[in-house]
Design brief:
The protein is α/β, with parallel strands linked by helices and 386 residues long. The protein is built from 13 helices and twelve strands. The protein folds into two domains: 144 residues, Aspartate Aminotransferase, domain 1; 227 residues, Type I PLP-dependent aspartate aminotransferase-like (Major domain) (Aspartate Aminotransferase, domain 2, 3-Layer(aba) Sandwich). The strands form three sheets. A seven-stranded mixed beta sheet has the order 2-8-7-6-5-3-4, sandwiched between helices. A three-stranded antiparallel beta sheet has the order 9-12-11. Strands 1-10 form a two-stranded parallel sheet. The structure holds pyridoxal-5'-phosphate.
Length: 386
């Protein structure tokens, strides 16, 4: 303890985008017309078939706890999704339904890392990963990556940075904040490298389905021992329903289930029944239309930002983010993003949220808003830059 609270709590850093989001919402309430490009969630409301399924579950009184690993029909439906999307035969016993990918991250790190061990991950990367590790007294080993690495870990980087405390590697493909995707051959080479070191490979496949012009491979096609995290939050547009899943090796499933029992009892019941409708053809059709809309938005935003001098050396291929270099405008994007919000009413996320690798030079723009709003944001940026 250092004073009133634990050192552990003191070490957890705030998720800066949440502070900015709070301020942006305040400005909304005061009547300002803020363009929201800060949040990591689709602007589309949850699709009607999913919402209808939730209402039906409530009407039927399906409101008690479920099994800790989730209801079997949902685990089977997720298994069917792997068959349909990737041609993979995954036993439902290996699928654990979780309280968002956040719940899955806490459990996977609790299983695979502990005090004195670390997990390798990219910088820039999703900020909560290293906080989860801190919470369990382990640590995130952040490896700086840039456009020369397609903003992803490579076998060479893993080799170079592996040390005696490294327990494994966390990849996120597509990545938040860069939208970078690890291609099949590279993924295989990474899996082989981690295996050769007797390490664990965890792949965050949260943004699968949100790749533009191609489908990302699942690591499970290449490495049956990998741990996969996924969620209904992004492709299925269900952020607020707090529902995700993980696919784990058979031997790990009872261990994860034990953690789930203790940490969460069970994932949200209504959300689970709602999610059963997510895999219906009519729902998937809606998701695919949204995917097309995201692709158009990405093209508009990337083109517009490049015209304004932002540095985007690698076109993001997935997720709904553009991680743009802004060193032609500022050497402190944290202050710049706040001023862009206060003065120009465009909400974005400063690079500092994603690590320390030249972070002060980058801004993350989310294209989770309509084409007209993206045009407006570009216009406001144009006016500001002059
Ligand atoms: C890379 C990545 N992983 C995990 C999460 C957590 O997602 P959720 O808990 O909503 O499933 C997010 C959310 O933005 C993310 O970007």
């Amino acid at each position: 303890m250092t004073g009133q609270w634990t050192q552990r709590a003191a070490d957890i850093q705030s998720f800066k985008v949440m502070d900015l989001l709070k301020r942006a919402k305040e400005l909304d309430e005061q009547g300002f017309d803020v363009v929201h490009m800060e949040a990591g969630e689709p602007d589309f409301a949850t699709a009607a078939p999913i919402a209808e399924a939730a209402k039906a579950a409530i009407d039927q009184g399906l409101t008690q706890y479920t099994a800790s690993a989730g209801i079997m029909p949902l685990r089977e439906a997720i298994s069917g999704w792997y068959q349909q999307r990737y041609g993979l035969d995954i036993s439902p016993q290996r699928i654990i339904v979780t309280s968002g990918a956040s719940g899955a991250l806490l459990m996977v790190f609790s299983l695979l890392a502990e005090q004195g061990r670390s997990f390798m991950m990219t910088d820039p990367g999703y900020p909560c990963n290293r906080q989860f590790l801190r919470l369990i007294e382990a640590r995130g080993q952040q490896v700086p990556v840039g456009p020369e690495h397609n903003y992803q870990l490579t076998p060479a980087l893993i080799d170079q940075h592996w040390n005696e405390i490294t327990a494994g590697v966390l990849l996120a493909s597509p990545s938040n904040p860069t939208g970078a995707v690890v291609k099949r051959d590279e993924l295989q080479a990474i899996a082989d490298t981690v295996r050769a070191k007797n390490g664990h490979l965890v792949v965050d496949e949260l943004y699968h389905g949100l790749t533009y012009g191609f489908d990302a491979p699942s690591v499970l096609e290449l490495d049956p021992d990998a741990f996969v995290l996924n969620s209904f939050s992004k492709y299925f547009g269900m952020t607020g329903w707090r529902l995700g899943w993980m696919v784990v090796p058979e031997a790990a499933a009872p261990e994860i289930e034990k953690l789930a029992q203790n940490l969460f009892i069970s994932p949200c019941t209504i959300s689970q029944y709602a999610a059963l409708a997510a895999f219906k053809p009519e729902t998937v059709e809606i998701m695919e239309q949204r995917r097309q809309a995201f692709a158009q938005r990405r093209d508009l935003l990337v083109g517009g930002l490049r015209e304004l001098g932002f540095d985007i050396p690698v076109t993001p291929e997935g997720a709904f983010y553009v991680y743009a270099g802004a060193s032609h405008l500022t050497d402190n994007t944290f202050d710049f993003c706040w001023s862009l919000l206060e003065e120009n009413k465009v909400a974005t996320t400063p690079g500092l949220d994603f690590g320390s690798n030249h972070a002060e030079k980058f801004i993350r723009f989310s294209y989770t808003t309509g084409m007209d709003r993206i045009e407006l944001a570009l216009e406001r940026l144009r006016q500001r830059i002059g």
